[in-house]
Amino acid sequence: MLLGRCNRCGAPLVLRAFGRWNPDGTITVKPYGHGLRVSFIEQGELTALLDGISSSIGYPIDKIVVEGERKANGGSVDEMLSKMRGLVRSIAHSAIGVPFAEKIITDVAIGLGHGRSEVLEHKRGKLLRVRISEPYSAALATGDLLGTYEAHFLMTAVASWQAEGDSLVITIEKDHDGMTWEEPARLALKKMPTFPGHVEFERCGRCDVPLEMTRTVSWNTNRGIIINNDSGLRQVMIIVETINAVIGELTWELGETIPDMVREAEQAYIASVMVGTELEGTAETYAQLLSDMTVFGQGNPVEVTKEGVLLTVRVDNPFCEPLIAGRIAGLYQAVEKVETNVIWSPGTNGYTVVQAWPV
Ligand SMILES: [Zn+2]
Question: Confidence band (pLDDT; 50, 70, 90) for 178?
Answer without folding.
Answer: confident
